[in-house]
Amino acid sequence: MKFAVFLYHPEPAEGFDINFYRIKPESGTVGKPTPHMYTNIACFGDNQKASEHPEWIAVSKDGPATRLNKKYNFRWDILCMTNPELVEETLNFIEENARVSPGISLSSMHFADHGFCICPRCMDLWRKSGLSWTEWRAQVVTDFVKKARDRVGSKPLFINILPDPVLGKERFGYNYDEIANYADAFVVPMFSRSYITSWYFETLARAFKRILKKPVFVNLYVYGPGENPQTVPTVEQILTVSCRIARTGVDGIIYLAENAWRIRDFQRAAVQNKKLLEELEGSGGEEVVERVRVWESLF
Ligand SMILES: [Zn+2]
To answer: What is the β-pairing status of strands 185-190 and 216-223?
Structure first.
């Protein structure tokens, strides 16, 4: 089992197999690639471009894919993914990063949610395709991942998918089997400010491990930008949910934090929590406990 981090700054954290740098999160800010970290790119979730090109925002009968749309509760603004100018720009950016970075991770490479996108271009493309609405959308998403694969070349390509194992195709256009032909691994974000009820996260991890035909990584929330100690999960919750997820047989766990020193604080707190580590022995998540023991040497 692998352990990784998902960071908003280009300084790697110690004690992990993979460091992901969020070079372009959904806020739309863009950093510079580093050879020391894998690059994560949010493709069509992009607040910056949405404000520069409001005409690029995906649309539905229940309004646009923006943070203000209460029917959907989007965490960021989402652009229509059939815009050829945007697609080419995004693929070029992926290629530029793949030249420097040891691997690429793509987020937000799908339709906003069910009901998107019904802009005139999407409706025209769908009608011309002769496919059902669901199949056409899935084909658009798979086609984008295939093109991204070509740009990434032989370096590892991680595909981040939203955590809906049942309706992922209808909602986001995920054809899991098709995407698996082009991805080296899937990442399932399960971000939460509390993991107090770990049962649900374990259930989701178990379902995805069964469905997905490539290695599965689960991404957990440690300490994102703009948080304070009262708004993030406790170290006990993170370690417990990590063990519950590990025992489902997933291939890796990723920890999201603003930067490497937030991760270091988490590692220190984990190492110091001897009582909890003892309790977690025998839970089936031993690889998590073993990794925490390895971190002891960092302090
Ligand atoms: Zn559209």
So the answer is: parallel
Residues with Cβ within 5 Å of ion ligand 1? Answer: 80, 117, 119, 122
Buried b (16+ CB within 10 A) or exposed e, 208-218: bbeebebbbbb
CATH number of the domain bearing residue 223? 3.20.20.80
Instruction: For residues 83-97, give the mean pLDDT.
Output: 98
Domain that holds residue 47: 2-261
**What pLDDT band is residue 298 in, cutting at 50, 70 and 90?**
very high
109 CA to centre of ligand 1 in angstroms: 14
Q: Separation of 170 CA from ligand 1 center, angstroms? A: 16
3-class state of residue 185 by DSSP? strand
Distance 124 CA to ligand 1 centre (A): 9
Write out pLDDT tens, residues 35-76. 999 999 999 999 999 999 999 999 999 999 999 999 999 999
CA of 118 to the centre of ligand 1 (A): 5
Q: Does 155 fall in a domain?
A: yes
CA distance 65 to 72: 8
How many angstroms does the Cα of residue 65 sit away from the middle of ligand 1? 11
Instruction: List phi, psi (to 5°) of 106.
Output: -110, 130
For strands 216-223 and 157-160, give the pairing: unpaired
Ligand 1: centre distance to CA 30 (Å): 24
**Residue 12 lies inside a defined structural domain of this protein:** yes
How many domains would you assign to the chain? 1
Question: Can you give the pTM of this predicted structure?
Answer: 0.97
CA of 56 to the centre of ligand 1 (A): 8
Q: Is residue 54 part of a domain?
A: yes
Flag whether 276 is in a domain. no
Give the separation between CA 53 and CA 19, rounded to whole angstroms. Answer: 32
Distance 38 CA to ligand 1 centre (A): 30
CA of 162 to the centre of ligand 1 (A): 20
